[in-house]
Amino acid sequence: MASENFGVALGMIETRGLVPAIEAADAMTKA
Question: C-alpha distances in angstroms, 24 versus 3, 7?
């Protein structure tokens, strides 16, 4: 995963919770 995407994922973990962040990160890797 690219470093910028990892930063975004960390932000989503803090704001939305762990599971949505994992799903979003998974979607980004498949996009």
Answer: 15, 12
Helix axes 18-30, 3-16, angle to 10 degrees: 150
CB 28 within 8 A of CB 5: yes
What b/e sequence results for 12-31 when a residue is b if at least 16 CB atoms lie within 10 Å of its CB, and e otherwise? bbeeeeeeebeebbeeeeee
CA distance 27 to 31: 6
pLDDT, one tens digit per residue, over 1-31 is 566 777 777 776 676 667 777 788 888 888 7
